[in-house]
Amino acid sequence: MSASKTTKNLETGAPSSAQRDSKLSNFLCFAVYSANLAFGRAYKPILDKLNLTYTQYIAMVALSEKDDQTVGTLGEKLFLESNTLTPMLKKLETLGYIQRKRDPADERQVRLSLTAAGRDLVATDPGAPLVEATGLGNDFPAVQKSVVRLRNNLLKAKQDGSAKD
Q: What pLDDT digit, counting tens, does each position of 126-142 carry?
């Protein structure tokens, strides 16, 4: 999304013009979107060697933070619905990286944990070379925090109703 004629340019803070706004390079959302695509392309050869997708890998990283999570909790962390997660989690279970089990207190809930093989894989940190590949150097933590703040602000704005459909 770009700024309108009466607002400031999100990239520069300068007043917007119709001509500048129509340039794709001025869309912050496109910069974030295309950076996400670039990350996916950078991760692909690394994860292909491990027979994993990016989504499978980040699910394993999220599970490494806390054992015995429910599918719902993991879905919230990853911004994914259970109908997207379930086939992916079955594949990770088949690969021997996670264990899925029904919650004895509530059979409707499926609990997830990494196996020893899953923990070992996450511990190797296959994505570590990509930190350097970003070229951000010491700015990496600040950029990561800014992107998280951006995401959280957008989610809050939507939740508060200030980001209209």
A: 999 999 999 999 999 99
